[in-house]
Specification:
The structure is a homodimer. Chain A folds into two domains: 9-57, Arc Repressor Mutant, subunit A (Orthogonal Bundle), CATH 1.10.10.60; 70-210, Tetracycline Repressor, domain 2. Chain A is 72% helix and 0% strand. Chain A is an all-alpha fold. Chain A binds a DNA duplex through residues 8-11, 13-14, 17, 38-41, 48-56, 59.
DNA sequence: GGATTCAGTAAACAACTGTTTCCTCGAACG
DNA sequence: CGTTCGAGGAAACAGTTGTTTACTGAATCC
């Protein structure tokens, strides 16, 4: 399933420094946004010459786009699995919120980058994130379509619901990150509030199906 | 109701340059984020010396915080008025979405700044925006409390609902802004999708009140 | 095993940044 | 009316930035 190319020690080293730059950039981006990140900052943090940067990226914007894919990488499949695994509404909500909290704790920098640059100042990165989230929305919609309660729901309606849910997840990620910095409510409060919101949305879904689909 | 201080020609000029700096900054921020905005950029755009900047702000962060209040200024009261004016759910949704679209067209730069810096790289600005939005949430909750359907709703539950709605408004603002730049869906599609979302949330509210409040 | 490719280096470029110190000159005050 | 005050200007400061050009030396290819 995974396309692996046999790899020489030559380009192994290249990939290693490339990844080092991405990691260093992610670290530096915890306290600033992409549009103020300097290419010299990145290379300095890695320990290479500024010129080496150009062997891997055209400019910082290019690096940002590369960063998007890594950041959204696993969350897709994790959420999908959680949704498929549980079909009771309350279970789904609890497990999804717990999953998000765990994921934020495990990869704070990646997710901070996503949340920050989703509406950030670099157009190409904004578009890359939007494209990834769109894929995510369609995946979630596909899972929702399997539920019994999706009886008379059209595809656009399901995508609307999925979009609503994905936005709630992103907002939850942002709130968890704030909680970890002691800005705003605590982690427990964020989890509780998110569950409440998701429950309300679920009720809306049920009610919507029951009257005019 | 408005506290107006009698004003000399002296500080009238000072306020004028201060406002010119805020406006110039807002313009420059359409294509970058606050953390990359230079104080020299701002003064150059206004046509004053870099040193003049310090007569008005300690640094760019300070200017950013000042910008927050201007940006959120009117939307509060407009939304409040719209909610109070209509109590039919469908009317509320239609008028609120229309109001948001109009407001985005009228003040794109202010709103872009808000959406961008809400999760942006400058902590003080993030906190200022969060504080303003929190006030907004409490205002909306207060209006919702007047509805009949808010029978057995506790205050935290009402604030949860209000928070959900305010987040939807912010997301709608962001989507309208993207539409104006021909990123993503068209303006009409954004309006339609937002109305769908708000309807679903309203159904959830009704259903939630009907069973366990 | 010799030729070639290419990741990373070294040094220099002009342009820009935030901040300081001192100065100017018109309005405001007593 | 003379004095004080304060918004804005001039010039210089040491650092920083992105990008170019020419190079080295080790892994790869034939």
């Amino acid at each position: 399933m995974s396309r692996t190319t046999v790899i020489g020690a030559r380009e192994a080293q290249k990939l290693k420094t490339r990844q080092a730059m991405l990691d260093a950039a992610l670290g530096l981006l915890e306290e600033q946004s992409l549009s103020s990140l300097g290419l010299r900052e990145v290379t300095r943090a890695v320990g290479v010459t500024p010129t080496a940067f150009y062997r891997h990226f055209r400019d910082i914007e290019d690096l940002g786009v590369a960063l998007v894919d890594q950041a959204l990488g696993n969350l897709h499949t994790l959420v999908r699995a959680t949704l498929v695994e549980h079909d009771d509404a309350e279970d789904r909500i609890d497990h999804t919120v717990a999953l998000i909290e765990r994921h934020v704790r495990a990869h704070p920098a990646h997710l901070r980058f996503l949340v920050r640059e989703r509406h950030g100042g670099v157009r190409a990165v904004r578009l890359a994130i939007a494209a990834q989230l769109d894929r995510f929305v369609r995946e979630v919609a596909a899972v929702l379509a399997l539920d019994e309660e999706s009886g008379g729901w059209s595809e656009p309606e399901l995508e609307m619901l999925a979009g609503l849910l994905v936005d709630q997840m992103v907002l939850a990620v942002s709130a968890f990150l704030s909680a970890m910095l002691d800005e705003g409510p605590t982690t427990a409060e964020v989890a509780a509030a998110t569950r409440l919101r998701l429950r309300l949305i679920h009720l809306g879904r049920e009610a919507s199906g029951r009257r005019a689909p």
